[in-house]
User: Fold this.
Amino acid sequence: MQKFLNFLVGALIGGFLGATLAILLAPSSGEELRLEMRERIQRLQDELRQAAAQRRAELEEQLAALRSSRA
Assistant:
């Protein structure tokens, strides 16, 4: 468990540093970069919502199947 937490902390720190360097070294202007980042974040949020809804539907189907098998 400790190795996983160390890996997770390292990955988060690396991601943060990478994102910071990408922003500082980006060839786009600040406004263009902010617009692009907003669009990427929006797409990511949409994908996460879709994945969560799909997983929820799968789990609800499994629950319904379990409940019907008990009856």
Q: What stands out?
A: Residues 2-70 form one domain. The chain is about 90% helix and 0% strand. The first helix runs from residue 2 to 24.
